[in-house]
């Protein structure tokens, strides 16, 4: 009987301690769950980053392999005369041409002129296009009047406008910049103006309920909501500016990379033509990367604000 009494006493003591132990477990369980959840998310993030790095590396390696195979096949085809080397040249011949023109300094003035024309056309095209889009949004009547003219100008081949600019502005820098603006301004205007019109009507109604005028509405809602599109238009305009400049130099220039292409065709020096195209691709890529870096910086600041 004594043993039975001791056994019942021990059970009562354990029963008294059980709620306290369970309470402690319940109090500690949320933190344990949070730690497990945090560790799981951290592992998922690391796995995702590793997979993303592998994918990026694989893309880069594939791009390099394709480029090497293309250049190697082109070189072999030119040297073995599988293709006409007079018409298609081949890479080593092009690089010798580039090295010669870079060494004697004759290439740099052409690069400088084309880059300066491109930068001017790019900056002016972006600014004027944004300003025109703002004016069209501000004055709906003007927008309705100008709409068919903008559509016609956008669809018109810009080469056809070149002779008009040459007659009005003379052969030279201004006419080339004008051709560039004819390419960049219309596209910029249409893209940004369409974004102005597509801003969420709910935001506009809320601001107007607080008595905001048209200028305050534009500054507080329309422009901030359209900022990502305005920034992304910069990258589009880089390529358009290069197209406009090269077209302008085809028509009128006596200096520039576009002039070198036309001159190479005229004297049947297709190595000069292809090497000039290679320089255009390289310089345009550098400008595009610079604008992309500027876009990332501006977008980071916009998100923080």
UniProtKB/TrEMBL annotation:
Residues 1-30 are annotated as: Disordered. The chain crosses the membrane at residues 55-74, 118-139, 159-187, 240-262, 268-288. Pfam families: BPD_transp_1. CDD domains: TM_PBP2. Residues 13-24 have a biased composition (Basic and acidic residues). Residues 107-291 form the ABC transmembrane type-1 domain. It is found in: Cell membrane. The keyword rRNA-binding does not apply. InterPro entries: MetI-like, MetI-like_sf. GO terms for biological process: transmembrane transport. Belongs to the binding-protein-dependent transport system permease family. This is NitT/TauT family transport system permease protein.
């Amino acid at each position: 009987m004594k043993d039975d009494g001791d056994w019942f006493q021990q059970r009562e003591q354990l029963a008294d301690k059980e709620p306290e132990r369970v309470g402690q477990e319940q109090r500690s369980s949320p933190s344990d769950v949070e730690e497990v959840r945090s560790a799981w998310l951290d592992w998922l993030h690391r796995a995702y980053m590793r997979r993303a790095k592998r994918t990026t590396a694989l893309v880069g390696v594939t791009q390099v392999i394709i480029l090497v195979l293309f250049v190697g096949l082109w070189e072999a085809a030119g040297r073995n005369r599988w293709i006409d080397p007079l018409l298609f040249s081949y890479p080593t011949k092009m690089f010798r041409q580039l090295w010669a023109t870079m060494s004697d300094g004759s290439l740099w003035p052409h690069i400088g002129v084309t880059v300066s024309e491109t930068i001017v056309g790019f900056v002016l095209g972006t600014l004027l296009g944004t300003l025109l889009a703002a004016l069209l949004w501000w004055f709906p009547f003007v927008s309705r009047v100008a709409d068919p003219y903008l559509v016609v100008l956008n669809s018109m081949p810009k080469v056809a406008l070149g002779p008009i600019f040459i007659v009005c502005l003379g052969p030279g820098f201004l006419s080339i910049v004008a051709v560039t603006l004819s390419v960049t301004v219309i596209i910029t205007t249409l893209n940004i103006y369409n974004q102005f019109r597509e801003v969420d009507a709910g935001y506009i109604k809320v601001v107007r309920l607080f008595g905001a005028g048209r200028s305050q509405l534009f500054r507080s809602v329309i422009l901030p909501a359209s900022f990502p599109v305005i920034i992304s238009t910069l990258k589009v305009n880089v390529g358009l500016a290069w197209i406009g400049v090269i077209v302008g130099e085809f028509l009128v220039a006596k200096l520039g990379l576009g002039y070198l292409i036309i001159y190479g065709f005229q004297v049947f020096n297709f190595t000069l033509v292809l090497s000039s195209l290679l320089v255009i691709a390289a310089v345009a890529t550098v400008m595009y990367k610079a604008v992309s870096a500027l876009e990332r910086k501006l977008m980071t600041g916009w998100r923080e604000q």
